[in-house]
User: Fold this.
Amino acid sequence: MLILPGETIYSYLIRHCLSDGYPTISSSLANYFDCTSKQWSAQFPSFIPRISELSGVPTIQLINNHTVFPAYRHFMPLNLIKQTERLLTFGGDMNLESKMSLTANRIKREGVLKFCPLCVQQDEMKFGWIYWHVEHQLPGVLACTHHGCSLMSVLTNRKKLLLPPTINTTFIDAEFKALKISQLSEDLFKLKIPAWSFETLKDIYKRRLLERELATQNHTVRIRLKRWRTDLRAYWKPIGNAAQVKTILAQSNSWQFPANAIYGRDKVLHPLKHLLIIGHLFDTLEDFLSFSQSFDFDDTCKPNTEAMRKGQLQVEVEEKPDAQIIELLEKGSSIRSIAAECKVSHGYVKKLAQVNQIDFDRRTQFIDDLVRRTIWRKLFTGESTESIAQKVGVSKGAVEQVLSCNPELVLLRKKIRYFKARQTHRQNIMESIQKYNTRKDIRCESSASYAWLYKNDHEWLYDSLPEAVPRKKRFLGS
Assistant:
């Protein structure tokens, strides 16, 4: 069976199963993959090589034309793009959403499949099949750009063979902003240029914000973040109730967007976050590309070491009294007193001192090499950070800082905790075995230990438990 233009891999599998006469997903999975645990509707499926065999389409063509990956790759570093493409090409257990920082972005998948009711009618007339379009599943797509209508959605179901419905569908004209974000996402998906680096994107955004008077520039660019946030929220308000947009434009005190697109280093942000910024600052993706090509970013993306030495390369979220802070630091004032007087955080004062290479008095919390070595030895033996902090006389945060600088200790301590937990749970089960003769009673007595061992030490658990009651006797009270 041929894969249709712009069809998702999930849709192709559904049609393949229906044409072969399989009634359920499990039966078809067992036939095609010798496994019933594959998640067909995944954004980044782990079975692309098998689909290539069924369809005769090369894997790279499937990835580029029939998955949503091309819409993500433009905002990823090159090494991550290559790693992701390699994993998709060869399949396997990938946990790609975590590797691509989608989990860290805290934007949940909507759990729905979207379709255009007019596209459904056209597909049935043209191909004799209805199918799921990959362009309708792209990040941020809320409308069909071909027909100008809002997309409808169906909840994904892991146990049913789902294709877009042909009844009870309605045509609703899409809101302009919904069409705009959808068009941006589709244009991004079709774009055939290399990925942008995070530094390049930051420079483009800063230049545009300066033109829009949402930033000021003297020795450095200062973003008028509060004003930008307000304008951004107001601009996308017509689609503010869309689940993912609502999450990104949250108005809580800990709201990091759009600051996290400007500050920080080498962040991998969800494509929808970039699209909301690009859509706010530019009319189309073509305008964005024209603007970005009008500058040479090769030099602007490199750190200005001379400016860093002079303390001029400072990019703040809000206007802050840098000159006053530097003057107080040079006079020898403490970090705590400067932070209180200038109404900034201790960390900000420390950062300013370090960038300007100004020595400052550290509190006794600063740990020397001898204390650091003592902490390392105690961490190596698996002692808890709370206990180490009390014995050494430092804060728990200082101990955790030492731990974070030694990643090999993190893995070692995980193993130590595992073996300690295993020993404790085994002991609990052995004590229960001395009291009871059936697995049911032992499980009720030590349910937590039983569950832990069942998950992590299955062989030992079943070797140690009494023989299971024969199935035919379980309901006879024997």
